[in-house]
Design a protein that fits this description.
The chain has 12 helices and 7 strands. By secondary structure, the chain is of the alpha/beta class. It has a single domain (about 10-280), classed as Vaccinia Virus protein VP39 (Rossmann fold). The protein has a 7-stranded mixed beta sheet with strand order 3-2-1-4-5-7-6. Helix 5 links the parallel strand 2 and strand 3 (about 110-115). Helix 3 packs across helix 4 (about 75-85), helix 10 crosses helix 11 and helix 10 (about 220-235) packs antiparallel against helix 12.
Length: about 280
């Protein structure tokens, strides 16, 4: 696993998303995650929803399932699942700003509940959920084994988990770690970036049976070309973007450089993107 030189805490992650809230919503939109392209003709909004639909299909979600969305962001993914799969969703985020936006969605749907809470310190009873999903949030967990342990504990027997994750390829070169992966972790507030092998090991150690792990890197990397382009246009046309980058007190302004690093990391294969599916045995 790639570990940043400076330890990243849950408070660092929360501050990152609180500080960059406006930029995330303007550059990424409601869904703060990758898009999934099958034909290349999809709009970015269609691709973002395709990523959710692909996850829902992999879980074989059934009406009335109770789903936990770990790292729910603004609640848009949970809202899509509730509307299109008729499931109830409990979402968690450590960002106070994201929780406020998500609460507005919950006010419009009895199927949605959002909590400002750290998954690693959750208060759910054992067997609370039929499914647990984590879309690009496990990267921000300081203890990834505990992330899977808590998923296993809070799932009912037979329950399923699906995790979309940013990944480091299994064998990396020193230059990849030094110039790409370690800075991505440090600047993006990731306590660590695991490989496919790491995720399989963590899930298995928790007790899960891994049903599959799919490499979707080629289908999602277009996300970064689009986001980088949007950011550059904002930088050229809106003074608040330039002002933020010039503000020496803005501790998260370095993420602008991280956009470029991630784009390069996908292009070189240093960084991957995968979907892990697993289930908790019934016995």
């Amino acid at each position: 696993m790639i570990i940043p030189r400076k330890a990243q805490t849950a408070a660092d992650v929360a501050a990152h998303y609180n500080d960059l809230d406006v930029f995330y919503r303007e550059v990424w939109g409601d869904h703060v995650h990758h898009g999934l392209w099958f034909t290349g003709r999809e709009t970015s909004a269609e691709a973002a929803e395709a990523l959710i639909e692909y996850l829902a299909d992999s879980l074989m979600l059934q009406p009335n399932d109770h789903v936990c969305d770990v790292g729910c962001g603004y609640g848009a993914t949970a809202e899509w699942l509730a509307r299109n799969r008729s499931v109830s969703v409990t979402g968690l985020t450590i960002s106070a700003v994201q929780a406020q936006h998500a609460a507005m969605r919950a006010a419009k749907s009895p199927l949605l509940t959002f909590l400002h809470q750290d998954w690693l310190e959750n208060t759910f009873e054992a067997g609370s959920f039929d499914c647990v999903v984590a879309i690009e949030s496990s990267e921000h967990m300081r203890d990834k084994q505990l992330f899977f342990d808590e998923a296993y504990r809070t799932l009912r027997p037979g329950g399923r988990i699906a995790v979309y994750a940013w990944l480091a390829r299994s064998r990396t070169c020193p230059w990849e770690e030094r110039y790409l992966l370690e800075p991505i972790c440090r600047e993006g507030r990731l306590p660590g970036m695991g490989s496919m092998d790491d995720y399989r090991e963590w899930a298995t150690k928790s007790g899960f049976v891994v049903d599959g792990f799919e490499d979707l890197s080629a289908r999602v990397r277009r996300t970064w070309t689009i986001c980088a382009g949007r950011f550059m246009r904002k930088l050229l046309t809106e003074s608040k973007y330039r002002g933020y980058l010039m503000d020496s007190k803005a501790g998260n302004r370095i993420f602008a450089l991280t956009l470029v690093r991630i784009w390069i990391a996908y292009g070189t294969g240093s960084m991957q993107y995968g979907l892990l599916n697993a289930h908790k045995p019934r016995a």
